[in-house]
Amino acid sequence: MKHYYFTLLVLSLLFSPIAFAQETDNAALLKVIFTKYYKNEKVIAKGRLQLLSFYCKKAPNNEEVLEVISKNDLLKKNADEIKKQIIVALDEDWSAAYTILFNNQNQYLKSKVNACLSFEEYKIVSDRKNQNNQRLMIVSKPIYFASNNFALVKIAFYRNIEHNNGSFLLFEKVNGIWIIKETLNEWAT
Question: What is the pLDDT of residues 121-152, one digit of tens each?
Fold first, then answer.
């Protein structure tokens, strides 16, 4: 019995730094995404309507990733590693990365992003205002590949009726900093 608990302890100590590093990378990617898409948004002050909201859940990666792979040489070279991360039945949220990103830092950006919303919360706000100026930004679970030096993330913007759009962002880690290398498969309705 002691051996079982000892094994669990050793495994948790080994995988905890890996999980924390992953969340740190997730937070760094979120910072780049938020900085890009919230650049023109106003700071949320008392009584001011937030026009761009962030969806709390990580969107699962699906077969759409296969189309993106087929159109990019770097992704083709890493296709097997990327395909293993297509998990349609995903139930994760951004809370850990969100906390890392905004815990005593990036407060100006936080004042623009504010809190994340569930889809139901977004619908209530959007329906109450009865305008098509609110958008919900949905960010997929990042797919890391090539020794975690690259990441692929889908960004989608949802509105109640039309003008939905999105794309995939290909990130590269350069000198420890994530940058957007390329925008892929842009779409709009």
Answer: 998 888 887 777 789 999 999 999 999 999 99
* SS3 category, 179: strand
Identity at 50, one-letter amino acid code: Q
CB 23 within 8 A of CB 97: yes
CA 165 remoteness from chain centre? 16
Rounded Cα distance between 16 and 19, Å, is 5
Task: Give residues with Cβ within 8 angstroms of 169, minimum separation 6.
Answer: 33, 152, 153, 154, 155, 180, 182, 183, 184
What is the phi/psi pair of residue 49, to 5°? -75, 130
Amino acid at 16: S
SS3 of 36, please? helix
C-alpha 63 chain-centroid distance:
18
